[in-house]
Amino acid sequence: MYSFRHWLSKPNLWIVLALLMANGVAWFFALTPQEVRVVEPRLAPDLVALRQRLGEGANPGETFTVVVTNQEVEESIAWYLAGRPNIPFANPRVEIHPGWAEAWGEARVAGLRISLHGRARASLQDGKPVIIVEELGMAGLAVPDPIRQRIQQELDAQLDFSGQDWPVIITRFELQEGQAVIEGTFR
Predict the structure, then answer these.
(1) How far apart are CA 142 and CA 135, in angstroms?
(2) Neighbours of 83 (CB within 10 A)
(3) Residue 53 and residue 182: Cα distance in Å, rounded?
């Protein structure tokens, strides 16, 4: 018969206990209610004006400027999500910084609310926005690289307008502290 001290000296026991504790911590962060910020779903005024001008058939060569703040981006994301109930994401929070942005929110996975966090870099290439996901986390833990890469592929596909005539040419896409500035011309 083994004594209690014998079991305590087994490295496998400590490995199992460490894994159980790590699992418990992950579930704790996944299930702990986070601060929920209710964001009013509405499209930013500059985006509403741009959509209206596009709908009316803006004159080719006419310029436009769109400036959206952190809050307006959050509200615009909530507006977008409100029309797509099949996307299991809610409560967006965004902070824009020079050249990059950080976002938080929550996903609903298997009936659980799980906190998400991401960081992306943004630039302009050939008149089109380019977004590179640098970090992605779920429930306080980093998402494995293959999953982050798959999400990057989906984002790239959403922003790929090759073969399509985009109704605008973007001449400036800049992330500044607390806001994004987009300038361009209508085709």
Answers:
(1) 8
(2) 8
(3) 15
E strands present in the chain: 63-69, 89-97, 100-109, 112-125, 128-138, 141-142, 168-176, 179-186
Structure tokens at 175: 């992330």
State how far the Cα of 170 lies from the Cα of 183, in Å rounded to an integer: 6
Predicted TM-score (pTM) of the model is 0.75
d(CA 73, CA 45): 11
Give the integer Cα–Cα distance in Å for 155 and 163.
Answer: 17
The string of pLDDT tens digits covering residues 131-159 is 999 999 987 888 888 888 888 888 888 77
Residues 93 and 105 sit within 8 Å (Cβ to Cβ): yes
What single letter denotes the amino acid at residue 123? S
Pair 181, 174: CB distance under 8 Å: yes
Report the C-alpha gap between 96 and 175 in whole angstroms: 6
Q: 125 with 159: CB under 8 angstroms? A: no
pLDDT in tens, 90-142: 889 999 999 999 999 988 877 777 888 999 999 888 878 889 999 999 878 88
Asked if 77 contacts 87 with a C-beta cutoff of 8 angstroms, the reply is no
